[in-house]
Amino acid sequence: QVQLVESGGGLVQPGGSLRLSCAASGSIFAIRAMGWYRQAPGKQRDLVATITNSGHIDYADSVKGRFTISRGAAKNMAYLQMNNLKPEDTAVYYCNADLWTGGYWGQGTQVTVSS
Fold first, then answer.
1. Average pLDDT of the chain?
2. I need a labelling partner for 62 at 20 to 30 A (CA). Which of 51, 84, 93, 107 fits?
3. Can you spell out the DSSP letters for the chain?
4. Nearest of 107, 106, 98, 101 to residue 31 by alpha carbon
């Protein structure tokens, strides 16, 4: 099993930046990919970005060119650098770990983009 804890959310103005972090603990060796998802009020939880152990990355069209996902060298950390934030980016952001035996979610961190 894996436990995930997100941090780095907060309130920023449009055009600002935030860097989210996800710390994994437990069976880290079993993680084969990690990702970030977000859920706005009244909306479904949607993919933001994913990254595999080999470095393959996918982004949602809405964040391409603005967000960057990365993994720490030890593979127990995942990051989401968010630049040029827009009000429509406001959501709870969740870290996800895809393991050989299943998937796990963090508790989420709130990102609010407002002037």
1. 96
2. 107
3. -EEEEEE--EEE-TT--EEEEEEEEESGGGEEEEEEEEE-TTS--EEEEEEETT--EEE-TTTTTTEEEEE-TTSSEEEEEE-S--GGG-EEEEEEEEETTEEEE---EEEEE--
4. 98
Q: Give residue 31's pLDDT band: very low, low, confident or very high (50, 70, 90).
A: very high
CB 10 within 8 A of CB 112: yes
Task: Tell me which residue has tokens 């970030």.
Answer: 36
Are the C-beta atoms of 81 and 70 separated by less than 8 Å?
A: yes
What would the pLDDT profile of 37-93 be if each residue is shown by its tens digit? 999 999 999 999 999 999 999 999 999 999 999 999 888 999 999 999 999 999 999
